Amino acid sequence: MQLYYTAAIHERYQFESLVWLSVTAPGLARIAQPGQYALVRPSRSLDPLLWPVVFLAGADAAKGEVELIIDPRDPALAWLLDLPAGVNLDLCAPLGTPFAPAPATHTLLLAGVGTTLPALLFVARRYAGRLSIALLLAGDKGYLPPPFLLPETVEVQTSAAGEGGLFELLAAHSPSSPIRWADQVLFALPPSLLGQAAAAMRSARLRWDRGLAQVVVAGPLPCGLGICRACQIETRNGWQRRCVEGPVFDLRDLR
Ligand code: FES
Q1: For residue 26, which of 64, 105, 149, 234 is within the disulfide window of CB 3.0 to 4.6 Å?
Q2: Which residues line ligand 1 (CB under 6 A)?
Q3: Considering the entire predicted model, what is its pTM?
Q4: Which atom of ligand 1 is nearest to the CA of 226?
């Protein structure tokens, strides 16, 4: 399978503090899945190592375009912020295991914070119209992806009260918690919030089987290719690499 693409920036917009890019990469747009990421570097760069990681925010096979959202607080991505349309990027993608909504799922709850949030936007846009979707986003003011990127059929709630705002939106102990009605819950979280997410699942559902909750886990991916083992996370199946066996895991498998 092709893994390396040269992609020209097609459009660039700034949404408060975030920068949204669409790049032309027809081969990648055909196969990219929500939850996967790209290693990105300037085209023709001779640096073979440490390409920074960007999670894919969308892919349109008909247009041949892939979308990226750049957070300026990541110093490894600073060089991407001001690039104009027409500039070429090298992408190594799509990498990692994607989200896998079950065929029987009708209602999907998406909830997340941080650098893997673009993966939830990608899910929402991929499955809007086919599934009933609610998307809960939390983070810092000015750093949340704008809801108008999403189809009208997706119900969006945001909290600009930092990462902790996510669990207020989930209101896990309340009878009206959205976790209660979802056929599946897909999270985007850093490792520090996995325990809180598991607790929210346990308090909202009497029964929690594998497959009910998946999570795309944020954190550094120094090589992104399964070589350095600096990205390992402890699971019920032993230590696994977030970049290869993840970054999407079943939440029940994480300790
Ligand atoms: S980032 Fe190097 S093995 Fe995962």
Answers
A1: 64
A2: 221-224, 226-231, 241, 243
A3: 0.94
A4: 3
